[in-house]
Fold:
Amino acid sequence: AFTVFFNAISGDAAGGVDVLMRYTLRLLTAQQFQRAATLFCAMEHLRRANPGSLGTRSFEIGLWVGGSATPNKRDDAISKLRKLQRDPDAENPFVLLRCPWCAAKFGPQESAGLEARGSRQVFGRTKTHSGAINVLGYSKERRGSADTVVYRCSDKNCEFGGLPGSGRLPLPIVVIDEDVLERPPNLLIGTVDKFAMLAWSPRARSIFGIDESGRHKGRPPTLVIQDELHLISGPLGSMVGAYETVIEALCIDPLGG
Structure:
């Protein structure tokens, strides 16, 4: 939080990643992401109240992990959201199950205790007149160059709630790879093995402030945090070590040192 605020106030924010936070285990990564999401909601709340000093670009947190934790592709995320809306037995693939700001529940809306206005009860969950299951917290919306799934609180009274098109911004959370690389978040939490994507995905250069032409359009990450360092050993340690030199080189600002 200090690094993000410092970069914003000092004018060094380049609209990209300020902090890289890396973990070894995907489960631990997802758990830490959920906790940090609350912090970024608070930071975004402060930014909205002080756009003059903190800027007009949202403070965002991103998750960069394998597909077992969250959908990695926009089309896949949209497809799984649609499945969640029509299949009462579908597993929820999205990483957040509650709003990190107000704790409103996300996911298929349970029928118990709900009013019957404009809906009917089927399979223990509320269905709309169109027959789709009412899924809260996840919304198909336009972000950048394409449609994707964003997190939008189901409570209209929440600062991060409101229907799409209401003019209210969704939660400052980015979890789909294409969204992360198109508009890198201020804090990017990921697993060490995910950084192997640097060799296979040219777009991953955007994390380090490099555009498609190979030029530095902004500053690279200011801070890198490696947690659970004692778990990086054996074959995993060899792989991480090979990429660490590259990551260190990419984190050097050619303009500012």
Summary: Residues 16-75+93-101+148-228 form one domain.
